[in-house]
Amino acid sequence: MTSPWLVVGLGNPGSGYAATRHNVGYMVADVLAARLGGRWKKHRAGRADSIEGRLVGERVVLGRPRSYMNESGGPVSTLARFYGVGPEQLIVIHDELDIDFGQLRIKSGGGDNGHNGLKSIRQSLDTGDFFRVRVGIGRPPGSQSVHDFVLKAYSSTERKDLPVHLEEAADAIESLMTAGLAATQGAFNR
C-alpha cells in the first residue's frame, strides 16, 4: 500500500491567532477538512491535530501542528514518520509575504525565505524538497513591522474575498495530488 498524502496547514494555535494572516494555512486545512467531512482530533503520535480520509480519490492525512509556527518541524516530521510519508508526498500550506493577497504559488523545494515555519520543517526533515502551497498575504503597509502584520487579522475588505481564495488554495492542493506539479502550476500560478 502506498503512503498517503500528508497535507499540513501552518499556523499558530489558539483563538487569539485564528483570524490572522499567519494562520491562513490552518484556514485552508479547515476547508479541506470540510470537504472530507472530518473533524480535527489530537493525533496520538504528537503535537498535532489530524484527519484521515480520501480527497479526489487519494488517501490523505490532513495535519495542523499544535505548536507555534517556529516549532512546526517537530509535529510535521512526527506525522510524516508515523504515516511513512516522504517529502514527495508532503504538501505544506503557508502564508507568503512576497505574493499579493489573493494570489497563489505552488512549488516544490526551495529555501525558507525567512518563514520560520518552513525553516523549522526543513531542519526537522533535513530537506526542503516538499511541495508548498504559498498563499499570498502581501507586504505590510507603510512602516508596519512584518511581525505585527502577519499576526493581525485580515482587513474587512480582505475578509470579504478570503473564502474564495481559501477554496482556490484547496482546489490547487487537490490538483497537485491528481494532476501533478506542472499542470497545477499552469492552472493556479499567476
Can you put this structure into words, describing what you see?
- With 190 residues, the protein is of the alpha/beta class.
- It has one domain (5-188): Peptidyl-tRNA hydrolase (Rossmann fold), CATH 3.40.50.1470.
- The chain has helices at 24-36, 73-83, 116-125, 146-150, 156-179, 181-188; strands at 5-9, 41-42, 48-55, 58-65, 90-96, 104-108, 131-136.
- The protein has a 7-stranded mixed beta sheet with strand order 2-3-4-1-5-7-6, with helices on both faces.
- Helix 1 crosses helix 5, helix 2 crosses helix 3 and helix 5 (156-179) runs antiparallel to helix 6.
C-alpha Rg (nearest Å): 15 Å
What's the end-to-end separation, in Å?
36 Å
Could you say what the CATH architecture is? Answer: 3-Layer(aba) Sandwich
Helical segment count: 6
The total number of structural domains is: 1
Briefly, what is this?
This protein has 6 helices and 7 strands; from the N terminus they run βαβββαββαβααα.
Features of the shown structure:
37% helix, alpha/beta, 7-stranded mixed β-sheet, 190 residues, globular
Blueprint (SSEs and pairs):
Elements: E1 5-9, H1 24-36, E2 41-42, E3 48-55, E4 58-65, H2 73-83, E5 90-96, E6 104-108, H3 116-125, E7 131-136, H4 146-150, H5 156-179, H6 181-188
Helix pairs in contact: 1-5, 2-3, 5-6
